[in-house]
Structure formats: structure tokens, C-alpha cells
Amino acid sequence: DHLTTSVLAEENADERVEPASLAKIMTIYAAGHALQSELIALDDKVKISEKAWRMGGSRMFIEAGNHVSVDELLDGVIVQSGNDASVALAEHVYGTEEVFATVMNEHARQLGMTGSSFSNSTGLPDPNTYTTARDIVLLSAALITEFPRLYARFSMPQFTYNGIRQVNRNKLLFRDDTVDGIKTGHTKSAGYCLVSSAERDGMRLIAAVMG
């Protein structure tokens, strides 16, 4: 059942911007489809590549050669915004991050995200990775309605892997218990980004603030 959606407020909603880690909402959405079509399973053990292990920025601290479950990788992407987990997940689903990115773009087309392009699973700066505030809200609404169980993970306050406990960067989760997601992002070029969502009395709002 598709929600009736209406825009309550917007400014420069179609301006092309860098998504930073907001791109990981699409990584999770694409993974949701792969789980649904049984291309992958939550208990699959994923062998971590050198490429995934070497990723800089935010990480869940997986180690090359180790085996980590899809289940844990999903939490690593969602709660810790792990670049390492995003690459490992992408490689597990479609063999390479490049192929995974083409699938991200296919999903974007199907969702009507006309102002977006993805070239990696992390949102790290790249000329071919961009989105708009409107597109990210479209994507977020699709994730929430199509994959409620996956979406439930976005409200997890923390996640511990490899003995390292990391707290969810979305501080709104701790300030208001009707907030249940979604994702923060930051790079020098993208600035600070936040897509947030809350549900009260049967009404859900999604807000995207970029840069």
C-alpha cells in the first residue's frame, strides 16, 4: 500500500548535491531487494576483501579475510555508517561495488529519482555520485514502506562489533522517541546532511536537510 505523500515544505529540493553517507540508504534499499529475491540471506557469511578492509572514514572495523554475516554488515552500515561494511555488502550481493552501483541506479530510475546518480555504495565523493533532497525523501519513503523490518534497524541506539561499541550518530533518536531514523552524512564537500523521520498519531514525516 503506497502512502499518500505530500510535501509540506521545501527549498531547493531539486538542487543537485552530494549525498555523503545518505547514499547508504540506497545501499540498504538495494540489499533489501536482494534479500527479498533470496539472492542473499541474513546468515550468509561474507569474506571481507582487502578493498573493504582498507576503506577510510566511518567504519565498523571488520578485518580482511574474516567472515562476517550479512546480518552484522547491515547493522554496520545502518548504525555505524561503515564504509567497510557497505563495500563488503555490495561485493557480496553483486560481486563488485561497480556492478552494485549500476543496480543502485536501476532502483533510482524505478523510484523516479530523476536527479540522482550513484557510483559507489558508500557515498564517498565522486563526480557521478549525487542526489537531491526530493529524491532522498522518495527513497526513504520507499525503504520504510517496502522493508519495514530493515527500517526498524535505523532506530538502534548503538551497535558493538569486534569489541568496539559505536553509538548511532542520529542524535534525534535520543531526544524524541517518535523519531525512528534515518541517517546522517558528512564529508567536507557535502557538509552535514540528515534525513530524519518520525511517526505520531498515524502520520509520518520525513525531512531531508543537505549541506
Structure description:
With 211 residues, the protein is of the alpha+beta class. It contains eight helices and seven strands. β5 and β6 form a beta hairpin. The longest helix is centred in the middle third of the chain and has 15 residues, at 97-111. The N and C termini lie far apart (32 Å). The model has no long low-confidence stretch (mean pLDDT 96).
Main β sheet profile:
3 strands, antiparallel
The backbone outline, from C-alpha atoms, is globular
Instruction: Write down the secondary-structure element order.
Output: HEHEHHHHHEEHEEE
Low-confidence stretches: none
Question: Could you tell me the number of beta strands?
Answer: 7
What distinguishing features does this structure have?
211 residues; alpha+beta; three-stranded antiparallel β-sheet; two-stranded antiparallel sheet; 36% helix; 19% strand; globular
Could you outline the blueprint of secondary structure elements for this entry?
Layout: H1 23-36, E1 45-47, H2 50-54, E2 67-69, H3 70-78, H4 83-94, H5 97-111, H6 133-146, H7 148-151, E3 158-161, E4 164-167, H8 172-175, E5 179-187, E6 191-200, E7 203-209
Antiparallel strand pairs: 1-2, 3-4, 5-6, 6-7
Helix pairs in contact: 1-4, 1-5, 1-6, 3-4, 4-5
Short structural description:
The chain is an alpha+beta fold.
